[in-house]
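Tutorial, part two.
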Amino acid sequence: MEKKLAVVALGGNALLRGYQIGTIKEQEKNAEDTLRNLMFLLKGGYDLIISHGNGPQVGNILMRNDAGEQVYNIAQMPLDVCVADSQGGIGYMLERVLRNLLNQYKIDREIVTLVTIVEVDIEDEAFKNPRKRVGKIYTKKEADKLTADKGWMFKEEIKEKLSGWRRVVPSPVPKRVLNSHVIESMARQGTIVIAVGGGGVPVYFDKHGNLQSAEAVIDKDSASSVLASKIGADEFYVLTDVPFVYLNYKKENQETKEFLNYSDTKKYLEQRMFGEGSMAPKIKSCLNFIEKGGSMAVITEATKLDNKNYGTKITKEYTK
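Running the prediction step on this input gives:
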């Protein structure tokens, strides 16, 4: 019997909860709680690729950049290097925690972490209208100076206890995960591959065919879906902070959806039944995977993956 290949996209809460400050102990504990739920896939003989978010972590790296420049005159690193930095750090932590879990469960698998670059289109509309907020909150005076000195763009940020101006960067659509054939080859040989961290490091090819960096961030679920489709993965899992997909979320007529087919899911998306900044990108990623031949996409809470009573299963046609 041929083994199945699954791509599992870990959400930001898999590493850092909203109420936490982000110590390494907190992140390691969260990683262990999440990764333990992947053991049933490995025990079931699945080949596995793991991707992860990096929102809080890359934001912290950017703030360390700021502090280093302001206090010690250390040159700031560009956003693409910060994304790569986060891939290495988070990937190392996930790999170490996962190796310990494999030891506990007596599972014999190798693990490799890859710094992954992802091609985007430099003509993508996202570069003309940056919307993704990153880094710290600045005063208007600080933001104006950074715009003049570095060409950064800002949008006003209004929060409950803090307001000001926050840097915005493009979030273009991923076109291609470079080295996807290498990722697939290793995974199909049984190696657990940690890749496409933070959506991958965004790059583009110039008119001479040379690889150039892009000051942008890529949606992790979208990049993971592109990878899963390209390598012909059987299943695609998106782990988040809710156990199901809901219609009319947090309203009196909220409806839990345990099973969805492609056409109904697309209809609900077009009707704006999913939050644009939260569930909608995950739904789009799952639809893209199913459209390109994937058998099943699952959206569920990070620590409930191994519980069949939870999770919304999206397939081409309804199956139960």
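Residues 13 and 241 are 7 Å apart (CA to CA). In part three we will examine how such features are distributed along the chain.
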